[in-house]
Each structure stands twice: as C-alpha cells, then as structure tokens.
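Inverse folding, one chain.
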C-alpha cells in the first residue's frame, strides 16, 4: 500500500461529519469491548484448566480458540480504536502508521480462529467415527503439533498484505472458504451418523463408549452437548463474517466514505465474535459454566 493510497483512504474517513461521529463511536466501543473480551477469555482459559471432562486434545483446541480471541482483545481492539481515533483527530501520520499492524494482526488471529475451528470439527469427526481408537489416533502431542503449525502459518502469511493487498485478501477468502467447507462437511457427516446410530438403537443408550484419557468415558449425551456447542460457535463465526464479505465487493469496486464506514462497522462485528465465544461456551458447557461462576464469586469477594 503506497503513501498516496493511505492519504486517499484517510480522506474517505473524514469526508462527512457523520462518518467522523461514527468512527468516534467505533473507537470508544472498541475500548469497552476489548476489556470484556480479555476478561471473558481469561475466565474461559481458567475454567478449561480446571475442566476434567474434556479429552486433553479437545481441551487444548478450545484453549487455542480462547487464546486467539484473547489476542483480539489485547491487540486488535486497541489497534482498531487507535485507527479510528487517528481519523477522528485528523492525525494522518498515526493513521498510516497503525493501518499495517492493525490489518496484519487481524488477519493473523482470524486465520488462527478459522484453522482452530476446522481442527475442532475434525476432532469431533474422528471422535465419532473411530470411537475406541480415537484416543490412540488423536493424542495431545499430535494436537499440539497441528496447532503449532496453524499458529505459525497464521502468523506468517498475512505479511503478504505488505506486498499486495488484493492478493492477501484473495488468499484470505480462499482459506476461509476451505475452512468453512471442511468444517461444514465434518459436522454434516457427524449429524447424519448420529441419526443413523440412534435409528439402529431403539432404546436410549450410550454410544459405544469413547474411553477418556484417565479411564472415564464419554456418553452420547456428553458428546452431543460438546458437538452442539461447537456447531453453535461455528455458526456464530460465520454469522459475524457474512456482513463483512457482503460489503467488501462494494468497497473494492466503488470506495467512498460510506462504503468504508460500512466495511469498518462489519469489521467491528467480526471482532465481537471474540467476546461472544466465551459467552456461548459458558452457557452451553456445564462444567465450564460452573468454573466460571466459582471464579466470578471469588473475584467479587
């Protein structure tokens, strides 16, 4: 992105008093949401550390998702707030200086979130299809290795934005598309498999038990509860990204102050997903909810 393009982008932010007021609201709300996002994801990480029912690889995958959401609260939200306030305060130097780090950080953490969601769906798919062999195939070490690869790739490729913004956006769209398709197929196959399994067994009983690390077992109800939670988190992620991709073509074809404002508002909606995820996990997962309640009681005391 050249210096002239940065100046052009900056002028679009300040074309009308309406856009300046909107960016003021976005900047202030970003600071508020950043605080709640950091606090919420720290609670989830603490609760996951205490949780005993989740298999270790599944737990580390949830931790990865919480860490990426925590990064949004610690890094992306403050950068976005600075980005908005620079436009409001007519500080073009700060605006151009912060735009690169903000965009790269957003791409990095968004990539990790999508990669983690995809790996989580594959984890649940193998848990259902391999059953007794699941704990031999999906180990803690393999999960950590796969997540390390996801984080490394997620942190490296967004720097291509510095070379060519359009190519970086195309690559991002392709990665998101592949992750969404893989995750959707996994959850679809699991849903069909559970229905077939329940049709074969006329009375309610546990699925052929998945031996938990340490000797305990998962029942069909526990498995379905975790599955429903992850499907809800996945659907929420898609819902937060859809407005952004709906507005993006208009911004690329006819950039103006209002299309840029719409793009940044939808970008703020994407960031709100990092606050919604811990709320969904606390609501849907009983042990997580219990640990969060205990921690909040301790904090209030």
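Residues assigned per position:
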């Amino acid at each position: 992105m050249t210096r002239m393009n940065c100046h052009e982008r900056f002028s679009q932010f300040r074309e009308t008093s309406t856009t300046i007021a909107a960016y003021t609201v976005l900047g202030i709300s970003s600071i508020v949401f950043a605080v709640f996002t950091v606090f919420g994801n720290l609670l989830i990480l603490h609760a996951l550390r205490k949780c005993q029912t989740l298999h270790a690889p599944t737990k580390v995958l949830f931790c990865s998702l919480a860490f990426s959401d925590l990064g949004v609260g610690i890094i992306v939200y403050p950068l976005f707030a600075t980005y908005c306030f620079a436009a409001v305060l007519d500080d073009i130097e700060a605006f151009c200086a912060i735009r690169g780090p903000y965009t790269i950080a957003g791409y990095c953490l968004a990539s990790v979130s999508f990669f983690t969601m995809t790996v989580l769906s594959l984890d649940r798919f193998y848990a259902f299809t391999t059953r007794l062999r699941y704990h031999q195939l999906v180990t803690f070490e393999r999960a950590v290795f796969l997540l390390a690869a996801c984080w490394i790739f997620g942190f490296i490729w967004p720097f291509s934005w510095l070379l060519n913004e359009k190519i970086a956006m195309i690559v991002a769209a392709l990665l998101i598309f592949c992750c969404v398709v893989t995750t959707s197929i996994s959850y679809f196959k699991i849903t069909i498999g559970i229905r077939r399994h329940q049709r074969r067994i006329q009375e309610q009983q546990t699925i052929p038990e998945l031996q938990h690390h340490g000797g305990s077992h998962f029942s069909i109800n526990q498995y379905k509860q975790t599955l429903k939670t992850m499907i809800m988190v996945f659907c929420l992620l898609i819902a937060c990204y859809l407005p952004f991709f709906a507005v993006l073509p208009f911004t690329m074809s006819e950039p103006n102050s209002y299309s840029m404002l719409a793009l940044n508002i939808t970008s703020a909606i994407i960031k709100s997903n990092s606050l919604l995820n811990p709320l969904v996990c606390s609501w849907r997962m009983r042990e997580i909810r219990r640990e969060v309640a205990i921690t909040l009681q301790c904090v209030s005391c």
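Confidence is low (pLDDT under 50) at residues 206-218. The first strand starts at residue 210 and ends at 211.
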